[in-house]
Design goal:
The chain has 211 residues and is α+β, with helices and mostly antiparallel strands. Helix content is 23%, strand content 33%.
């Protein structure tokens, strides 16, 4: 998969969606930048940018993903692949449900996913060098471009959801002491149950991770 790298874009996620819709870019393709000024975070929030961090988006056709991957759990899938890359380099990063990257108890990044027609656009932001207050920084040194290339290689292996989930469900136990946002309120994960499709059951609701 080719990676297009720019000095600056307002948002790699928005850029790739626009380019896919206008058919200027066809999947598979990836986009990275040295700096973005209007990044997209979870729940419509902005992802605060610091130059030197990872701002990276990629698109694939739905049919290019593993056949057993539940569409609503693509964010978990992409996040786990990045986690595997980072851990292979010596990081102690872990994933809080559904797709937030943590070092100890500090969030260092996250993944968002959008479906446009038959294309899946994933975006990963990681604090590689700098972080806002109350956030953490990755515990190893690696350049954004190199990390993007390693992730794409991992993605192209087309690892099955079964393989990914068998590991993810073990690490899910680390999430039980944390909270997440549900219908505008903060909810504890302590009593949640993880389902085989990546969703959780909490407060009598089945909650999926696609965002």
């Amino acid at each position: 998969m080719e990676i297009l790298w720019f000095k600056h874009l307002p948002s790699t996620h928005k850029y790739l969606i626009e380019q896919i819709k206008s058919k200027n870019i066809l999947p598979p393709k990836a986009v990275g930048v040295d700096f973005q000024s209007d990044g997209v975070g979870s729940r419509g929030n902005s992802w605060i940018a610091e130059e030197g961090n990872l701002f990276f988006s990629f698109c694939v056709e739905e049919k290019q993903l593993p056949k057993d991957l539940p569409l609503a759990s693509t964010s978990i899938y992409f996040s786990w692949l990045m986690r595997e890359v980072l851990c292979s380099l010596g990081s102690k990063v872990w994933l809080k449900w559904p797709n937030d990257f943590y070092i100890n108890d500090k969030k260092i990044g996250g993944t968002i996913t959008t479906k446009t027609r038959t294309s899946i656009i994933g975006s990963i932001g990681l604090n590689l060098v700098l972080a806002p207050s109350d956030f953490g920084v990755l515990d190893i040194k690696i350049e954004a471009k190199k990390l993007s290339e390693l992730f794409i290689k991992e993605l192209e292996k087309n690892i099955s959801w079964k393989n990914v989930f068998s590991k993810y469900k073990i690490e899910f136990q680390n999430s039980l002491g944390f909270t997440f946002h549900l219908d505008g309120k903060i909810v504890s994960l302590a009593d949640s149950k993880l389902n085989d499709d990546g969703s959780i059951e909490v407060e009598r609701k089945r909650v999926y991770s696609l965002r």
